[in-house]
Write a structure and sequence with these properties.
The complex is a heterodimer. Chain A is an alpha/beta fold. Chain A is built from 13 helices and 20 strands. Chain B has a nine-stranded antiparallel sheet with strand order 21-20-19-18-26-25-24-23-22, with no helix packed on it. In chain B, strands 1, 2, 3, 4, 5, 15, 16 and 17 form an eight-stranded mixed sheet that branches. Chain B is globular and about 105 Å long. Classes of the chains: A alpha/beta, B alpha/beta.
Chain lengths: 431, 994
């Protein structure tokens, strides 16, 4: 309660009505965080640690016992924990504000083949939902379009920026393909039973994809005139500038998708979803295909499945040697993305170590998204995108952030929600 | 059309039944009064009264005499039936035979229709007791033929449309005649369905619980009408009252619905006859307790085509087992002395009836019972035992002549006589040519084997161990056989033609490709071989008798082989979260006994208790979810803006896998709430998650009474699309007026009722009056502070309190007013941003309300989150610095208080129900797993037993998969893979298929 009061006080000073939080300015002073348990993200832990950063980059990571000059402002974090900022891949943050308000919905363009449609320009840095990620440690996200066969092109952003351009970590990082479904659902409005049956159009739909890529190949081999905008966007997959994200859950689909990508000479492929990925781990490894695993907190797909199957899938994949990150698509995905750390926490109850679980939302994800040169772990030279938590950040009881930095910038942990909380707590205190 | 039909009938039937007053212009009047005698037959006078070498004497469509001592009059045509068998023809009690197809209501309007389309009838179009099947009847010649071929003589037909469907019509299937002679009873039975009439778009009811409530209200209103209290004429209620003495036949189509509608029947002294879904064997005890008679379909599921393992893996254990177990249903019914008749209803083709009955007999159904279920029992059910279902003197001459036992695969039905009119199905003198033959042609030896149906033969021609392509055809005593020459590449054929005079030899001529003719003579091989074969076959049959998998509780994945029993358990050395003044006790023992918490302390002696070492583990009371929509088959009755008459208790689904999944998350009790489609929703069910029990046994004894109310976007249909703009209320202003209107009317209703004067019993107003009388509590779906405040003010105006605001996402804005009113808040931990009205929802809501003095619970409204409610409670520690003890109460003691069950559950206290959970770790931690979930001292979830169940399931599935693959390879029909999805229900779910 005391803490809340202190927060209230600080807030009363900085309260700026109901506007969104002001992005923090560029780092000008160095910081040294001392005494915390430092979780590097790559599996290593340093107890009683020292981490220093300046100009947005990490300059030192090591033990606090090291006799080395502390740079800039020193933060005593004894008993606390330091983590790299969490990364939410396959996210629609900032593309929709309120699900039920159509005017606020910009996630799904019409048309089946939209490789050229870019999520980044619709990403709303002013979203109240986006800012609510930060108090839980989610500091970066891959903004991903939805719908169609090829939904469009995603970009990766950090979550404290004035506009989309400033937010970019990696622009146009990948193209998202919704693999044809193995099942089709009975059309109840035509009196068909509400059951799933084999999708009779599956081969046809896969063929359409193959043809689309074949047409692109022919177009690229020619003089590319007149210009074909979607094909030019698609070509990034062939020349290695973009990753192919295949959204698919079932064993057959995953197998077909991997073979498809190979046949098309696609340089980098990632499976998104992957409910049955644990049945094809050898294939995934052989082809160096990582998995962005579906929401851990979800129900099994069928009544006969183990009740805890979604909880333990990550462990099965990790133990098989597959590179795994966690994603959170599904119902109410945006507001729910702040629970990403707890998805990782659950995998600990089902077999992973805490550091392995942490990698699923930091280091592994950065590698999968191709941004591990700058983020994903706390190592010298990387971005100082990190936070301090009072306790274990993967457990909701102890995930309590006191400070967070994005590229060394000391960001606000206040939100529309904390402001309301303070206003009304104040209301009762004054009564 | 009817005119044409009777004219046609006149032309056809003048020979046997012409009425004496009908003029005749096509010849002279003849008046035969001859008898027909069937002699030397084995006669099933009834399924249990059987005579050998008996005589059946009929005249004018009726049985004159039957038995061994029948004297045949001189003016009798005698038919010798030596070696043949006579059975009474079958009776179909549930059919829409001859009914004109019901046309869908057409309408140009796209907005929902709330009022009835018909004038002068009941207010709801789906109540149609005034329909008489006869008015819609048109004899269907083709279908009649199919039914006769399947063995039927009489059909009771009705219009299968609507909830109350009106009366049926009893009609014979005589191949000649007219309605004048075929019609046996023009009003027989009143029929009921569970879905709405296609002829109307009137919205109410949109759910099964609405249907049930409507049926109750119709019964009440009909009674009120019968007493002369309604001035206007209501032709539907009048008809309903007129049909009261008819047999009442209700198509329940599932075991759940049988129990549901039987309860309604009990309430109104009506015993329905149920058309079942064929799944009664799963809940046979409860089914028997209904004392109902049943009309049972014989359409057993086909095997799935399991050849593609990736597809096959999506077939559930329940579906695999249904294929294995469903054919045992009739036997189980018979073993439990339940009266049942068979129906072809739901069968793809009538001719499948006997084949499927053979299967159920293979599964052990007694043949006499099977025959009764086709003859005497249906006759008894429709109250026609004197005339139908047997061949005693005076009965209708409806009978089958067969080659032998009707349930034997090889048996042929020769004739089906209906009211003395013959329908020849298979010529009786057809020679049975089936067998193995040899013949010589052009000095080559051939072997011919003939199999198949007696009339539809199949042939195999072999020479020198080479099989030749061949085709055989046999009709009207002439046989043709074509087979290819030995050099099959030439594509040349030998043709054989033969007039059959005896079945031992086939004599005729053969014509070679070059035109040369030879005499043809094929001789049947010695018969001992066929006999030997027959005994082989019998043995085969026994080995074919499939392994029957045991029914589990529930009969699906993770079902128990027997219901788990109460245990005496001593937990040693646990960290005990008491939720009482004692707080959290370290290294403490807890004894549960007789379903209650018996002792709490240190070093308790075990006695005969099972000891559970809980060192390092945490023992808590079970989690209680104030807001759940699992375990129900309906959530919303969205047809009216007030639906206080409906109850979730009516439609509980005890076989929802989410019950088991909730147990695995430590949940023991839930309130299953109606949805939020209407300002005044339906009544709740407060249940314990006793996996394996029937719905009735889940509900709390002396359960507190609750009802769901709702506010905001859902009730004003903001997100229902542009067509839904015609139901009051469309604004928050209107919502208040709906409440005031209903409370005012309920108040006046209650006053009238208490005055002792006669009153029209109205289930909806009764329920709302219970609220005013503080006997029923409101749990109200709510988001925005303005409307929260409004409802409290409305309640105060009517002198009662709102019990709970559920969701209550802006509760933190009016927590002071909530404390003053005395209402609790049951909220989400951190949901927001999914609707406009949840813009200001914050994860600090629960802590702020709690700090202000509100009794706070955290609920799920979601089948997934409900199994992690311990984690949701922990979020209050994160966001609001609530103490761990208090946070834990948010999902245990506080919801118990809000549900008025805290005297029984919600804490670990001696004397309270033993609803406890053993956790592997700190229960608020993300790392904790429920290891045992116990309700009333019975272990319903155990993490070790779960592992065993998984293994056993895997084994059963593999075995059943193999059996299905074998079935396919044996040539049995299979169907393509289906994956059944459990639809996850939320506040705004409306049944699709209703």
């Amino acid at each position: 309660m005391k803490k809340l009061n202190i927060l209230i006080l600080t807030l009363l000073v900085s309260l700026s009505g109901l506007a969104q939080q002001t992005p923090a300015p560029k780092q000008t002073n160095a910081y040294s965080i001392e005494g915390a348990t430092l979780h590097m993200g790559n599996g290593n832990v340093i107890k009683n640690s020292l981490i220093m950063f300046d100009n947005g980059k990490i300059t030192f990571v090591g033990s606090a016992m090291m006799k080395i000059a502390r740079q800039g402002k020193v933060i005593d974090a004894k008993g606390k924990h330091v983590y790299p900022g969490f990364i939410a891949p396959n996210s629609t943050l900032g593309l929709v504000e309120v699900d039920a308000v159509r005017a606020s919905d910009d996630e799904d363009e019409i048309g089946a083949m939209n490789p050229h449609v870019r999520s980044i320009i619709a990403y709303n840095t002013e979203s109240k939902v986006v800012e609510s990620m930060r108090p839980n440690g989610v500091l970066m996200a891959q903004i991903t379009p939805r719908g169609g066969r090829i939904s469009g092109t995603s970009s990766i952003v950090q979550l404290d920026a004035w506009n989309w351009e400033d937010a970019i970590i990696k622009e146009d990082d990948g193209i998202h393909l919704n693999w044809p479904r193995a099942y089709s659902r009975g059309r109840w409005w035509l009196g068909e039973p509400m059951v799933l049956t084999e999708n009779k159009n599956y081969s046809k739909e896969v063929d359409e994809l193959k043809n689309y890529f074949a047409e692109n190949k022919a177009y690229q081999a020619g003089n590319t005139s007149p210009k074909d905008i979607p094909f030019d966007a698609l070509q990034g997959l062939i020349n290695g500038n973009k990753t192919l994200y295949v959204h698919v859950d079932n064993e057959k689909g995953i197998t077909d998708a991997i073979n498809f990508a190979k046949a098309q000479n696609i340089k980098k492929t990632v499976i998104v979803g992957g409910y049955e990925a644990n049945n094809v781990t050898d294939l995934l490894k052989e082809n160096n295909v990582p998995v962005l695993l579906q929401r851990v907190h979800s129900l099994p797909n069928s009544g006969d499945d183990d009740y805890d199957l979604p909880y333990k899938l990550a462990t099965q994949l990790v133990e098989a040697g597959v590179l795994v990150g966690l994603e959170n698509a599904g119902d109410m995905e945006r507001m729910n993305t702040r629970n990403l750390p707890f998805l990782a926490g659950t995998t600990v109850a089902y077999g992973l170590t805490k550091e392995q679980a942490l990698s699923l939302i930091t280091y592994n994800t950065a590698k999968i998204l191709g941004i591990d040169d700058t983020v994903g772990s706390l190592e010298v030279g990387k971005d100082a995108t990190l936070f301090i938590s009072e306790g274990d950040a993967l457990d909701m009881r102890t995930n309590k952030l006191t400070k967070a930095f994005i590229q060394g910038r000391d960001i606000s942990l206040e939100t529309h929600q904390t402001e309301l909380a303070k206003r009304y707590s104040e209301k009762y205190k004054n009564q | 059309m009817r005119k044409i039909l009777s004219f046609l009938g006149l032309l056809l039937c003048s020979y046997s039944f012409a009425q004496e007053y009908i003029p005749k212009n096509d010849g002279v009047k003849t008046n035969t009064s001859n008898y027909t005698a069937f002699t030397n037959a084995k006669i099933y006078i009834t399924p249990t009264q059987i005579v050998d070498n008996g005589t059946l004497l009929i005249k004018d469509g009726k049985v004159v005499a039957s038995g061994n001592n029948v004297s045949v009059p001189k003016n009798a045509v005698t038919v010798d039936l030596s070696g043949k068998t006579i059975y009474p023809s079958f009776i179909e009690t549930y059919s829409d035979f001859g009914m004109k197809p019901v046309e869908n209501a057409s309408s140009n309007r796209r907005s929902p229709q709330y009022d009835a389309s018909r004038d002068g009838f009941y207010w709801n179009d789906h109540i149609r007791p005034d329909q008489n099947a006869l008015d819609f009847f048109d004899f269907d010649i083709k279908k009649a033929e199919k039914l006769r071929k399947a063995g039927f003589g009489v059909v009771n037909s009705h219009i299968d449309d609507g909830i109350i469907q009106g009366t049926g019509v009893l009609i014979t299937l005589a191949p000649e005649g007219s309605d004048a002679t075929r019609l046996l009873d023009e009003k027989l039975g009143q029929f009921y369905g569970t879905s709405k009439s296609k002829t109307s778009r009137q919205m109410y009811p949109t759910s099964l619980m609405g249907t049930m409530a409507l049926l109750r209200q119709v019964n009440l209103d009909a009674d009120w009408y019968a007493k002369g209290n309604i001035k206007e004429k209501d032709r539907a209620l009048e008809a309903f009252n007129a049909n009261r003495n008819e047999i009442q036949i209700l198509n329940a189509s599932s075991k759940e619905n049988v129990l549901r509608f039987d309860k309604i029947g009990d309430q109104f002294n009506t015993q329905y006859v149920f058309v079942s879904g064929g799944d009664e064997y799963e809940w046979i005890k409860d089914i028997k307790a209904t004392n109902a008679q049943f009309i049972v379909p014989v359409n057993f599921p086909d095997a799935y085509d399991m050849e593609d393992p990736l597809m096959a893996s999506s077939v559930s254990l329940a579906d695999l087992k249904a294929w294995n177990q469903a054919p045992s249903n009739p036997k189980v019914l018979a073993d439990n002395n339940i009266t049942f008749a068979f129906t072809t209803h739901d069968l793809k083709e009538e001719k499948d009836l006997l084949a499927n009955l053979q299967k159920t007999i293979e599964y052990g159904l007694d043949k006499t019972k099977a025959l009764e279920a086709l003859t005497t029992i249906p006759a008894q059910i429709i109250g026609k035992s004197t005339q139908l279902g047997h061949l005693k003197t005076g009965a209708y001459a409806n009978f089958l002549i067969t080659s032998g036992d009707i349930f034997d695969k090889e048996t042929t039905i020769y004739q089906n006589w209906v009211t003395g009119v013959k329908d020849e199905i298979t010529p009786m003198d057809t020679k049975d040519l089936r067998g193995d033959y040899t013949f010589k042609l052009n000095n080559t030896d051939y072997e011919l084997s003939i199999s198949g149906d007696i009339e539809k033969l199949k042939s195999k021609v072999k020479t020198e161990d080479k099989e030749l392509g061949s085709k055989i055809n046999f009709s009207n005593e002439w046989l043709t056989l074509t087979f290819s020459t030995i050099d099959t590449t030439k594509q040349e054929f030998v043709r054989v033609i033969s007039k059959i005079s005896d079945s031992e030899n086939i004599k005729g001529k053969a014509i070679l490709p070059n035109g040369t003719e030879f005499a043809f003579n094929a001789t049947k091989k010695a018969s001992e071989k066929t006999e030997e074969k027959k005994s082989d076959k019998d043995e085969d049959k026994e080995s074919e008798m499939p392994k029957l998998f045991p029914v589990t509780y529930p009969n699906m994945a993770y079902g128990f082989t027997s219901l788990p029993q109460q245990e005496t358990i001593l937990f040693k050395n646990a960290t005990v979260w008491t939720n009482e003044a004692e707080g959290i006790l370290e290294q403490t023992d807890v004894l549960i006994k007789n379903g209650k918490i018996s002792k709490i302390g240190k070093n308790l002696s075990a006695g005969n208790a099972t000891i559970v070492d809980a060192t390092g583990k945490h023992l808590t009371s079970g989690i209680i979810d104030e807001h759940s929509h699992i375990a129900t088959s309906s959530v919303n009755e969205a047809g009216h803006n007030s639906t206080a008459e409906v109850s979730i208790e009516d439609v509980l689904d005890a076989e929802d896998i989410n019950i088991y999944r909730n147990l695995s998350g430590g949940v023991t009790s839930i309130q299953v709430l109606h949805g939020s489609a209407n300002p005044i929703g339906g009544r709740s069910a407060i249940i314990k998650l006793k996996w394996g029990e029937t719905p009735e046994n889940l509900i709390y004894t002396n359960t507190p009474k609750f009802i769901k109310f709702a506010l905001g976007e859902n009730v004003k249909q903001s997100n229902w699309g542009d067509d839904s703009r015609n139901r009051f209320p469309q604004t928050r202003m209107g919502v208040e007026q709906v409440f005031i209107d209903y409370f005012q009317r309920a108040k006046e209703y209650d006053a009238l009722k208490k005055s002792g004067k006669p009153y029209r019993k109205d289930i909806e107003l009764e329920t709302i009056a219970e609220i005013l009388n503080k006997e029923r509590f409101i749990s109200c779906h709510s988001y925005v502070q303005s409307e929260i405040n409004m409802l409290m003010k409305v309640a105060e105006q009517f002198n009662f309190n709102i019990n709970t605001f559920t969701h209550i996402l802006e509760g933190y804005k009016v927590a002071d007013k909530m404390v003053e009113h005395g209402v609790g808040g049951s909220t989400f931990s951190d949901w927001w941003a999914y609707k406009y009205e949840v813009n200001d929802a914050i994860p600090f809501n629960a802590p702020i309300m709690h700090n202000a003095g509100v009794t706070v619970a955290i609920n799920s409204d979601d089948a997934e989150m409900s199994r992690r409610l311990n984690q949701e409670a922990a979020k209050s520690v994160k966001y609001g610095d609530i103490s761990e003890e208090d946070a834990w109460k948010f999902v245990t003691l506080n919801p118990a208080k809000l549900l008025h069950i805290d005297d029984r559950v919600g804490s670990i206290k001696v004397g309270k129900d033993a609803d406890v959970v053993l956790w592997s770790d700190h229960p608020l931690s993300i790392y904790a797993k429920a290891e045992k979930t116990i309700i009333d001292g019975t272990v319903y979830f155990d993490i070790e037993r779960d592992a065993q169940l998984r293994e056993a399931m895997e084994k059963e599935k593999n075995e059943l998969t193999t059996m299905m693959l074998q079935a396919k390879h044996k040539g049995l029909k299979t169907k393509s893979i289906e994956k059944k999805e459990k639809e996850l229900l939320h506040c705004d779910s409306v049944e699709h298929q209703f």
